[in-house]
Amino acid sequence: MPWNEAHKEDSRRRIVEAAARLFALHGFDRVGIDQLMREAGMTRGAFYAHFNSKAELYREAILATARRNGQRLREPSLSLTDLLEGYLSQAHRNGEGANCPMAFLVTDVAQRDEQLRSTYTDVFRGFVELLKPHMTQSEGPQQQDDAMRTAVLMIGGMAIARALNDDALAERLLQACRQPQVASDQEFC
Amino acid sequence: MPWNEAHKEDSRRRIVEAAARLFALHGFDRVGIDQLMREAGMTRGAFYAHFNSKAELYREAILATARRNGQRLREPSLSLTDLLEGYLSQAHRNGEGANCPMAFLVTDVAQRDEQLRSTYTDVFRGFVELLKPHMTQSEGPQQQDDAMRTAVLMIGGMAIARALNDDALAERLLQACRQPQVASDQEFC
DNA sequence: GTCTATAATCGGATAGAC
DNA sequence: GTCTATCCGATTATAGAC
């Protein structure tokens, strides 16, 4: 690859990384292209050599982060407990590292166009598939339901914990969501 | 109460109602004071006779909606199943009626100032307290955890269902969250 | 208290030099 | 490909008439 193309690809990657970080922390609307490009080490004008619009970057940023996080979570040595403790951690709540877009941007995405919601839907589907093999107490359709509930406890738990202003309550909430669950209306004995 | 004051109070109420509706559907940033006041049947200029800033209205709108929804949910005849089915319904997902700010605005709130997050925290605490008496399979600290997990399944489930672009998947998700849960690491027999 | 008009600012997107 | 400069539209908030 010629030096120019490699350089352009690197610039693009830096923009996407900055976008993923800043969108997750402040929301799409509150991050200007100016601030974004400064974080990526360039100026405003260079943006449109890489993307047609800010909205296009939003999709790209969500997908890139999902790919990277998905790769980490697919480590075969990772147990469900590890997975829950890593995701539902104070570090994640404080915006250090992963910054899962599904949790940090749920309502932001829900209010935007179909294309972006499709991207979110794909990422969510992938997340549920990733959880499925960890649902060892069930199989078939019940396993799918368990995986979806676990996904909601993780994503929803993190989203709410971030909205809460009370650190103790947030930690209590995260802890409650770390406990694996099964349906209660079954006959156990 | 003199007619003038009653009239002003009514205007204020209409503004708060419009705000609750529009903020929930489109997000705080994407609703202009212009659009807001038009929905309330006035023009832009009249806004500041009622509120010092748009941010102040945000707090007011969340509190007002929470009070109204809380009152409905405190009906003593309402079972947990009724509660789950009402909240995790397609009507709610489509923005008809309740528009619970906890679900519709989670990440929006998380990205704003401490004062607004405090308001959200108070509302969330009230919601958990409301759920507690319905957690009949547990008591004490375990009951608090069960209530919080149920709150996460409701709020988080609704928030995610709204972000999803696939109606069938969203319905499947809501259905999964409607099943009451208990911890799985207990010994059942 | 509500209106119209306007100030002041900020945002995304484009043009053109290098 | 990246820069500086700029257009254009939208926004919050204020001023002043009624």
Structure description:
The structure is a homodimer of 189-residue chains. With 189 residues, chain A is an all-alpha fold. Chain A has one domain (3-178): Tetracycline Repressor, domain 2 (Orthogonal Bundle), CATH 1.10.357. In chain A, 66% of the residues lie in helices and 2% in strands. Chain A is built from 10 helices and 1 strand. The first copy, chain A, has helices at residues 3-26, 33-39, 54-73, 80-87, 90-93, 101-104, 106-110, 114-131, 141-163, 167-178; one strand at residues 181-183. In chain A, helix 8 (114-131) packs across helix 9 (141-163) and helix 9 runs antiparallel to helix 10. The first copy, chain A, is globular and about 55 Å long. The model of chain A is unreliable at 185-189 (pLDDT under 50). Chain A binds a DNA duplex (18 and 18 nucleotides) through helix 1.
The tally of domains of chain A stands at 1
Portion of residues within helices of chain A: 55-70%
- Top CATH class of chain A: Mainly Alpha
Category from helices, strands and their pairing of chain A: mainly alpha
Q: Any guess at the CATH architecture of chain A?
A: Orthogonal Bundle
Radius of gyration of chain A: 19 Å
Instruction: List how many beta strands of chain A DSSP finds.
Output: 1
Beta-strand content of chain A: under 5%
Biggest sheet descriptor of chain A: none
Q: Tell me the greatest interface.
A: A-B, 55 and 55 residues
The CATH homologous superfamily name of chain A equals: Tetracycline Repressor, domain 2
Determine the N-to-C terminus distance of chain A.
65 Å
Oligomer: homodimer
Shape of chain A: globular
Low-confidence stretches of chain A: 185-189
What is the tally of helical segments of chain A?
Answer: 10
Topology as H/E string of chain A? HHHHHHHHHHE
